[in-house]
Amino acid sequence: MRLIKQSIEKKDGSGSATLLPEEPEDMWHAYNLIRPTDLLRASAIRRVTTESMTGSSTSKRVQTTLTLRVTSLDFDPQAAQLHVSGTVAEENEWVKRGSYHTLDLELQRNFTLEKADGWDSIALDILKESIDQTQKAELWAVVMQEGLANICLVTNHQTILRQRIELALPKKRPGKPSADHDKASQRFYSTVLESLLRQLNMADLKPLLLASPGFTATAFQQYIKTTASTKADKNLSALVSKVIVAHSASGHLHSLAEVMASPAVTAKLSDTRFAKETALMDKFFDLLRKDDGRAWYGPKEVESAVEKGAVGRGGGALLISNALFRAQDVAVRRRWVSLVDKVSQEHGGDVRVLSSMHESGKRLEGLGGVAAILTFPIDDMDDVEGGEDIDIEEPTNGIEGRPGMNEDIEI
């Protein structure tokens, strides 16, 4: 994301920022940055109907700049499309104030955002992160089994299924030649590799995680090595050096969370944000199983722990889902911003805002979207009145692929 212009007052957070989305990941940042009641200004195509003196009417499409008071957002992570709906806040010659419209934010097209209640600490952090050019894809992953491969892009904020490949392989029969099976397997590996190479940026290779039950991932790694040697392909040779092989329960996408949590993988990917968050969630669940009073979850329990100063320096950590900051109710958003500020600024604790589109974030949502690792145990938290339900807003589409650029391949 490129920052075109910024005029935000430090005292009260008033003002606006003009941004230019340059790559699909920027749409995810925009989705988290834009909230209900904000003012969004961007170019739009609007159909306008005019009536002549004689009573005949004509309809035409005009391009104009609209300012909307945001009411809702719809994000498609696979297509990287963001649709923002709201009411027109500034009237012009084509559109009346108060009318309803949906803006389709696009790459390489500016938009200006003004926060209804000022730019709070969470919004400023998202803005800072969105314009940081180092925040890009962290690794690629192929979760596979015989005849099935899921090619995934893992970024700081999302796990996106880019392609699903399926091939019916003939079964191996004991005591009979397996030439047909071997030939089909080679064709399967060839198709997976071709599909993978179309996705990768060979000029900036990231780690490639291959995971499968049995020896499928190892066999695919060997296929890449053999192909690189046979073709004397320097790019493929470079790719081989980036490969990490791991075991998974299956070749389906949901197995990626288990793979990313394994010590062997987290050790090799220790510098990535996803690995750090996964390790932190694992630590939380370990403490929860020990039941030593240092791991608590739920809004009232966590808020009580923070009030007691138990989530501070010396190992305290607040884990909170970024979906909570997209709440429709302004008071609810302020509640969580206040909690984050108290931990990070007053108590010096570690705050991790987990992405709702990573497996670590999904695990956190199962706990209500907020949890804490305490610096010292608290055993009387059960005295806090019963928990409460939290509405967590999610994109309308999950991480499954869809036809088009991410279409499945069946051979």
TrEMBL record:
Record localization: Cytoplasm
Cellular component per GO, a single term: Dom34-Hbs1 complex
Gene3D superfamilies assigned to the protein according to its UniProt record, in alphabetical order: 3.30.1330.30, eRF1 domain 2 (3.30.420.60), Pelota, domain A (2.30.30.870)
UniProt keyword Repeat present: no
Entries under InterPro entries matching the protein: eFR1_2_sf, eRF1_2, eRF1_3, eRF1_Pelota-like_N, Pelota/DOM34_N, Pelota_N, Ribosomal_eL30-like_sf, TF_pelota
Major subcellular location class: cytoplasm
A GO term, aspect molecular function: metal ion binding
UniProt-listed GO biological process terms: cell division; meiotic cell cycle; nonfunctional rRNA decay; nuclear-transcribed mRNA catabolic process, no-go decay; nuclear-transcribed mRNA catabolic process, non-stop decay; ribosome disassembly; RNA surveillance; translation
Keyword Acetylation applies: no
Cofactor(s) named in the record: a divalent metal cation
Keywords noted in UniProt: Cell cycle, Cell division, Cytoplasm, Meiosis, Metal-binding, Mitosis
Region annotation (Disordered) ranges: 1-21, 388-411
eRF1/Pelota-like N-terminal domain segment(s): 1-132
NCBIfam families registered for this protein in UniProt: pelota (TIGR00111)
Family listed: Belongs to the eukaryotic release factor 1 family. Pelota subfamily.
Main function: Component of the Dom34-Hbs1 complex, a complex that recognizes stalled ribosomes and triggers the No-Go Decay (NGD) pathway. In the Dom34-Hbs1 complex, dom34 recognizes ribosomes stalled at the 3' end of an mRNA and engages stalled ribosomes by destabilizing mRNA in the mRNA channel. Following ribosome-binding, the Dom34-Hbs1 complex promotes the disassembly of stalled ribosomes, followed by degradation of damaged mRNAs as part of the NGD pathway.
Protein's UniProt name: Protein DOM34 homolog
Organism listed in the record: Aureobasidium pullulans (Black yeast)
Lineage: Eukaryota, Fungi, Dikarya, Ascomycota, Pezizomycotina
